[in-house]
Prior knowledge:
By secondary structure, the chain is α/β, with parallel strands linked by helices. It has helices at 60-67, 89-104, 118-129, 147-154, 160-165, 173-179, 205-213, 237-249, and strands spanning 18-21, 29-33, 41-45, 72-76, 111-116, 137-141, 190-196, 218-222. It has one domain (20-252): Alpha/Beta hydrolase fold, catalytic domain (Rossmann fold, 3-Layer(aba) Sandwich), CATH 3.40.50. The chain has an 8-stranded mixed sheet, with helices on both faces. The termini are far apart.
Amino acid sequence: MLSEDRSILSRPVAASPAVVSYGDDPDQVAEIWPADADAPLVVVLHGGFWQQRYDRTHCRGLAAELATLGVTVVLLEYRRVGGGGGWPTTFDDVRIGLRRLVQHHPRASRRVVVGHSAGGHLGLWAAATEPTPVVDAVVALAPVADLTAMALAFGDGENPVHDLLGGTPESHPDRYDLADPCRLGSPHAAVHLLHGAADTVVPIEQSRAYGGRHGGTDVTELPCGHFELIDPRSTAFSTVRGVVEAEAELAASTTRSRPW
């Protein structure tokens, strides 16, 4: 089995120019790389299997690089398991954070969510549960897209999916119905899945399952592992950048009615 390059997790990157709060908890914050008021809004959701020991800092490099596209980038933090998160708090934070960001960037020409791993799961969840004016597109990088299958894969030992939802699919089927992208209805937004064929953290079958469940989803398989997708120094990152850039450029020829 290939060894994953995890250097991005500890590589120091400067914080954003601005940090704002969207709630009273210390983890209800967002870092912002601002652009013009009319620029597309790109919200980054970090991974780490929803656990407190993994925070947004390892995705600062991703966020800073995307900001060079000329879009407003927001790196959204949220409460995680072991720090007040879990069901339903983690989901509530993402919902509240996205809606408040939209309210504070009413002129943004397009709203794109970029999520990695567990953040990819949360992005896909938002695509299915939030209306189009909040999320226009989701770019999910190596997402945990099939919670039920992932829970079974982890088994009876340390199981972050069980920790997130408070139990197994059998003990809490209602929660899995509301949280699992493969159980939810069709997304209200354009969805792009990018997944490394050599991923040893989140199996590529996760994205394949989502693509099979939701026909028409754009699924791209890349010759890389799990972390290259968020590493601006990697070869695979050029594909990630291109997909995000394409979604941002759609706004140039598309006029959408906004309720704000």
